[in-house]
Amino acid sequence: MDIATLAGIIAGISFIIAGITISGDLNSYYDSAAIMITLGGTFAATMISYPLKRLLEIFRISKNLFFSRLKDSRVIINQIIDLANIARKEGLLALEEAAYRLDEPFLQKGILLIVDGTDPELVRNIMEAELSFLEERHNQGQAIFETMASLAPAFGMIGTLIGLINMLRTLEDPSTVGPNMAVALVTTFYGSILANLFFTPMATKLKYRSSQEVLYKEIMLEGMLSIQAGENPRIIEEKLKAFIPPDERKGVNENTSEGEE
Fold it and tell me: CA–CA distance from 206 to each of 29, 56, 90, 256 (Å)?
């Protein structure tokens, strides 16, 4: 589970509630009409913007925000080095059995293409096409949250306008000015909270996870093509370590040394 996402949401809500209670009354920030306008309007406009099938995927995407774990690039580098050692000692055809033991479909597919004798350029084109469509699917998920982030403040402003209209209609009664003005401002408050505490950070987290997964698969692709080219496992190791930060490269060396022993 991604503790940072859950902790960030809890911390954000807690700080806002604490800030309200220090200088005011929490009940004054609750208004059912404002919730209906801001939250309801945001989701309604999002439904207009995207097909229903795509919107239903938001539940799966939201689950990934909390439960998806980032993969360790060092693990896949060591797997590729192991495959390179097998190919160097026993030939490319010996990789078929090892490929079926892999738990990463992208890497498995590429290795099997290599075993089948596919041209290196064709292997690259096939795997890059799959990687491109992976990024496109990720971008669509991010776009839903980005859309809601842009809509929430707008519907907050709509709620503010409704509150101001109601206030002006009853302007002859001074006692209604304060409550109507409060309702008008609360909707803007809700819209800002939804956009800046939920939707925008969620889109940013998805974008980060997508970039990490793409990097992870780019390491696989480079490793597969290097194996197909018959490069030395040590050269492949040094090439793939360039994809990860220097402070993580030591783990690759240790794991590789253990494997060689």
Answer: 30, 17, 41, 32
Span 169-220, pLDDT tens digits: 877 777 777 777 777 889 999 999 999 999 999 999 999 888 888 999 999 9
> Rounded to whole angstroms, how far apart are CA atoms 52 and 41?
16
Residue 146, pLDDT score: 94
Q: How far apart are CA 31 and CA 156, in angstroms?
A: 12
Q: How far is CA 140 from CA 147, 191, 203, in A?
A: 10, 23, 10
Supply the pTM of this predicted model.
0.81
N-terminal to C-terminal alpha carbon distance within the chain: 34
> What is the spatial distance between Cα 103 and Cα 116, in angstroms, rounded to a whole number?
20
Closest CA to 78 of 240, 244, 246: 240
Predicted local distance difference test score (pLDDT) of residue 145: 93
Q: What is the DSSP string of 57-123?
A: THHHHHHHHHH--PPPHHHHHHHHHHHHHHHHHH-GGGHHHHHHT-S-HHHHHHHHHHHTT--HHHH
The band of 253, judged by pLDDT with boundaries at 50, 70 and 90, is low
Contacts (Cβ under 8 Å, ≥6 apart) of 66 = 1, 2, 5, 6
